[in-house]
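The methods section describes the discrete structure representation at length, but only in general terms. The central task, working out the structure tokens from the amino acid sequence alone, is never made concrete. Nothing conveys this as quickly as seeing an actual entry. For illustration, here is how one protein appears when written out as sequence plus structure tokens:
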Amino acid sequence: MIAWVKLLHVTAIAFWAGGLVCILFLHPRVSRIPAEARIRDVMHFSLSTIIAPAAYIAIASGAWLIFLRSTFVPWFTFKLAFVGLLIIAHMLIARSIMNLFGGRSPNSLGFVVGLMSVVGVAVMGVLVLVLAKPEIDMREYAAIYQPGALRDFAMQYWPFRYLPL
């Protein structure tokens, strides 16, 4: 049973992440092709029929695997952070496509390339953490799990010491 859920999870992630990258290559700012109705239809169909359902299946099967495998280890917390980054990139890509064909000003080339970079970093982060399963000492990150202590933890890494967080 667990093997089938893992297969479903990995397949859904492959379609989700690959679809996000492929749909960004269709973006007229990257491909240098004019934004015609056919491209709009392909982008909309891909996002709504393939990529979004793959994302839902990946998240649902991943949640199912958490309870089947009892995956409560420190590296998994960081993996979920990268998955959250992938979800944010997915939403920004959908917004970018809506801007492109909704009559609003299209996003710049830098924004689209930045989204490609975010998707790449998120996918690579997930892959590295899942395949390496590193031992992480959570004592350094203990503030994440204490109510109200996250602000002090964030202040250690806040680059603007004179500006309040």
